[in-house]
Structure formats: structure tokens, C-alpha cells
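Section 5: illustrative case.
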């Protein structure tokens, strides 16, 4: 009887060598990267790291003004943020500054203020802005999604005061800007234009953020938080 032959010429012996222990084990062919493939993958990884290195900070720390009627200042920002907020207010023709922010858990460093909105308003008034032009709009959430709930509080303030607004600009810190704009836009919807103004954090050099622990924590943390907000955050009541 003729022996069965496979295209490789090994016959039944080559088939049997693919099995062991009465068929309990089986050997299969697999694809692996060649030297050329490994080089291409390495080059792609280097390209991604290069892009992250040089472009992620300016991408996160976006500034895009919409010339809104009101200027919103996130009350937790650093000192230089309030200085720029005042400059923006004076040259932007805004009707008023609204300070946003949620509960302060440790009040010892914030003059006893219960929330960042009140603390931010106090800082602006100390810097020379008339009290009549500043309104703190506190949010009493102290756990998760604080930026989004701050945006809802601002939206509620407009509604409670029967103000129809078509655009707002928000002053915030560095790489927090893109996430701030995203969450405020989510809260206000498409009928209100949301702009954002990113103020550099004076705790580190934004051009070389990777050289300090503050910069790495800030940029990497905000990048992760933005991905969550963009793809995994679903506000209560949304489908």
C-alpha cells in the first residue's frame, strides 16, 4: 500500500510529529517578527515617545478663546493664574467673572474657605477686581468628577439668574485645559460655545515638563484623566 505524502514530502511521519502523548499535545506554526519587523516596531515606538515628549503638553494645554460674555475662573488655580485671569478680564470685554470650584477638604491653607469658588473670588478681590464684578459659584461635590459638577453649578447659576449665555471662556491651569473644555462643553451642550485659556504652571517649565516630578505627575495624570473623560465618562442621566 502506498504511503500518503504531504506537499512537504514528509508523509505520515511529518503529520505524526505534530502530535504527542496520544494527541494531548499539538504543535502549531506561529508568526513572529523578523529582524526587519522588530526594527519597524522599534522605530514606531520611538516615534510615539517623541510625539509624547514634545507635543502632549501643548495639546493638553490648549488655549482657544470664543469671546464669550462671561469669564469663568477655576478657583483652585495657582497665583499666576489669577494674574492672567485679571488681564483676560480687562481686555476681553466680559460682563463678569464667575469663579468655580468644589469643596476644599483641607481648609488650613485656604483661609478657612469651604470651597475653591469662594477662595478664588477672594483672591481676585484682593488683586483689585471690584466685588461687584466677581461671583463665586460653589459646587459642593467633594469626591469625583469635580470639574464636571463645577460646570453644572455654573450652568445652574445662569439658569437661576435667567441669563441666556451663548459663550464662556474658562481660565485654568496648563494641561488641565483640554479636559476642562471637554467637560464644560458636555455640561452646557452644543448651544453654548466654550473657550479655554491655559495658564502655565509656575511649579515647572512647560517646555521641559519631563524634567520635574511635578511636571510628570501633572502631564501624565491629565493625559490619563482626559482619556477617561473623553471615552469612559458618562454623566448621570445620559444614555
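Designed sequence:
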Amino acid at each position: 500500500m502506498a504511503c500518503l505524502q504531504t506537499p512537504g514530502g514528509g508523509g505520515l511521519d511529518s503529520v505524526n510529529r505534530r502530535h504527542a502523548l496520544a494527541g494531548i499535545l499539538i504543535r502549531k506554526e506561529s508568526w513572529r517578527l523578523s529582524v526587519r519587523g522588530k526594527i519597524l516596531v522599534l522605530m514606531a515606538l520611538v516615534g510615539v515617545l517623541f510625539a509624547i515628549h514634545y507635543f502632549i503638553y501643548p495639546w493638553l494645554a490648549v488655549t482657544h478663546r470664543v469671546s464669550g460674555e462671561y469669564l469663568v475662573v477655576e478657583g483652585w488655580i495657582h497665583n499666576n493664574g489669577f494674574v492672567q485671569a485679571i488681564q483676560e478680564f480687562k481686555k476681553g470685554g466680559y460682563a463678569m467673572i464667575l469663579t468655580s470650584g468644589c469643596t476644599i477638604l483641607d481648609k488650613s491653607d485656604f483661609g478657612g474657605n469651604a470651597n475653591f469658588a469662594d477662595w478664588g473670588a477672594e483672591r481676585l478681590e484682593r488683586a483689585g477686581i471690584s466685588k461687584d464684578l466677581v461671583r463665586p459659584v460653589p459646587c459642593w461635590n467633594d469626591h469625583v468628577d469635580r470639574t464636571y459638577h463645577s460646570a453644572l453649578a455654573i450652568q445652574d447659576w445662569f439658569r437661576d439668574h435667567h441669563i441666556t449665555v451663548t459663550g464662556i471662556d474658562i481660565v485654568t491651569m496648563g494641561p488641565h485645559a483640554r479636559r476642562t473644555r471637554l467637560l464644560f462643553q458636555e455640561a452646557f451642550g452644543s448651544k453654548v460655545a466654550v473657550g479655554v485659556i491655559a495658564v502655565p504652571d509656575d511649579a515647572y517649565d512647560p517646555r521641559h515638563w519631563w524634567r520635574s516630578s511635578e511636571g510628570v505627575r501633572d502631564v501624565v495624570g491629565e493625559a490619563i484623566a482626559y482619556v477617561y473623560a473623553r471615552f469612559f465618562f458618562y454623566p448621570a442621566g445620559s444614555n
